[in-house]
Amino acid sequence: MDEILSVIKNKDPEQREFHQAVDEVLETVKPVLDKNPEYRKQAVLARITEPERVIMFRVPWMDDDGQVHVNRGFRVEMNSAIGPYKGGLRFHPSVNLGIIKFLAFEQVFKNSLTTLAMGGGKGGSDFNPKGKSDAEVMRFCQAFMAELFRHIGPNTDVPAGDIGVGAREIGFLFGMYKKLSNEFTGVLTGKSLDWGGSLIRPEATGYGTVYFGAEMLATRGETFAGKTCLVSGAGNVAQFTTEKLIELGGRVLTLSDSSGYIYDEQGIDSEKLAFVQQLKNVRRGRMAEYVETYPDAVYIPVDPTLDYNPLWAHKADCAFPSATQNEIGAKDGENLVKNGIMLVSEGANMPSVPEAVNLFIEHSLLYAPGKAANAGGVAVSGLEMAQNSMRLAWPREEVDARLKQIMKSIHKTCLDAGENYGVKGNYVAGANIAGFVKVVHAMLDQGLV
Ligand code: NDP
Question: Rounded to two decimals, what is the model's pTM?
């Protein structure tokens, strides 16, 4: 294990997030390798940690003033053992190859857990859509797809949204793909309802994270009714996590963006959430504006001199990190535990640093890693692909019922795998082991390719 990790680190020393994601998986799948000595001979770890294909490309585009800019585009096709590559596109200035590789690697295990036939991939660009006009975003998306289109397809690689890629971007990307390929196919998911999207896809990640949380609570005879919840982020995942928590009787106290967070002691109700959705999705404004409309709440701007995020230092029952990777640092983990948090369900990908994860496990919290808890998004993307293939659309209730069932089944799969390998109640080990075993079986069945 150590040798594999050190080879990976030596090959690409700057890809820290990728090392972190690999390290966590390697630590937990050791018992599987011990039980199956042939896996070592087959070098399954070296194979599963090396992307099948990495595509990097130049994206030149012109802003509204005629100035040309150049960004970098990525698509990492990590593993196609159980289906076409599937995973989102992220547009954020922090994007680099290491970030996309970590996300693609996580996606392999997550997609395996959904029980749907999807391999793992991820892509994106260091383009920052914030502050750009719709026309600039359109030109960027078209330039990005002008290269990506030759590498993807409904049976090859099916991208979706992620940070900075929502309904608007998916529309522009799909339009360009359709023009270049002269085909109307389900090549992207997260499409609008009028042209091939699935009901519940926008809600799926947030709803799924809460459904997973409800399953964990049920193991201790509890529900969300009356529970106080800390949610970070204010984008797609945070919004629909909040919506479902409100529906189930939880009281959401916080939301955030990269500039700061709001704390609303009264709880964010449906009316306040509708305000946030209008603010973030239509006006593309900042969370600071929340307190102008709801002055009983407080806004706390990011303080770069602190080594912790005060959002996670509020007393609450449950936490739903829904912004970005490593947003719960070591000290945040300590604050959460100190304040008696009972549940952490990760909407974001790898939002907790390893020190925080270890603390959650040590204190027997109900802790669900993103690759299990936020798999509802990609699961409904899989359902969108199925509906596209059949050229029909299922009603909202049907998709929601399937989502709920999938989250229930992922929860059980993680619990069972943990128990079978002697780490009962450890959802991290359970998710990694269950995801790993299925993909490895498929890889070995298909020979050395
Ligand atoms: P959005 O772009 O809709 O929202 C992201 C939110 O997180 C924004 O409020 C943003 O603030 C904040 N944020 C982003 N980067 C940072 C940062 N570096 N520091 C602080 N805050 C930040 O993205 P999503 O809601 O789609 O994604 C959120 C997380 O969920 C990501 O980790 C993503 O990988 C994960 N995820 C998403 C899925 C989906 O279906 N969308 C599926 C599974 C996982 P600001 O506006 O200021 O940038």
Answer: 0.97
171 lies in the same domain as 309: no
Residue 253 sits at φ, ψ, to 5 deg, of: -100, -25
Over 90: is that where the pLDDT of 2 sits? no
Q: Report the domain count for the chain.
A: 2
CA proximity to 86, closest of 375, 444, 403, 431:
375
Instruction: Pinpoint the alpha helices (H) of 248-299.
Output: 270-277, 290-293
Pocket flag, ligand 1, residue 112 (CB < 6 Å):
no
As given in the structure block, the two tokens for residue 148 are 């990506």
Res 63: pLDDT = 98
Whether residues 218 and 345 fall in one domain: yes
Domain end, chosen from 373, 407, 437, is at 373
Closest CA to 353 of 311, 318, 308, 316: 308
- Residue 364 belongs to what domain range? 204-373
Within this chain, do residues 264 and 168 fall inside the same structural domain, yes or no? Answer: no
CA distances for 443 relative to 106, 170, 437, angstroms: 17, 31, 10
Residues 376, 270: contact at Cβ < 8 Å? no
Identify whether residues 226 and 362 lie together within a single domain: yes
206 CA distance to ligand 1 centroid (A)? 11
Q: Is 122 a catalytic residue?
A: yes
In this structure, are residues 335 and 313 in contact, taking their beta carbons and an 8 Å threshold?
A: yes
Residues 339 and 211 in one domain: yes
Which pLDDT tens digit goes with each residue over 79-94? 999 999 999 999 999 9
C-alpha of residue 88 to centroid of ligand 1, in Å: 12
Closest residue to atom 13 of ligand 1, CA basis: 323
Q: Is residue 28 in some structural domain?
A: no
* Measured distance CA(280)–CA(286) in Å, rounded: 7
Residue that has been written with the tokens 């954020």 in this structure: 92
Domain stop point among 123, 154, 184? 184
| Residue with CA at minimum distance from ligand 1 atom 18 | 324
Q: Whose CA is nearest to atom 38 of ligand 1?
A: 162
* pLDDT reading at 384 higher than 90: yes
pLDDT at residue 156 tops 90: yes
pLDDT at 1 over 90: no
Kindly state if the Cβ of 349 falls inside 6 Å of ligand 1: yes
Alpha helices in 421-445 (DSSP H): 427-445
Q: Is 435 in the pocket of ligand 1 (CB under 6 A)?
A: no
> Quick one: 251 and 367 in the same domain?
yes
* In the chain, % of residues over pLDDT 90: 99
Say yes or no: 180 and 281 in one domain.
no
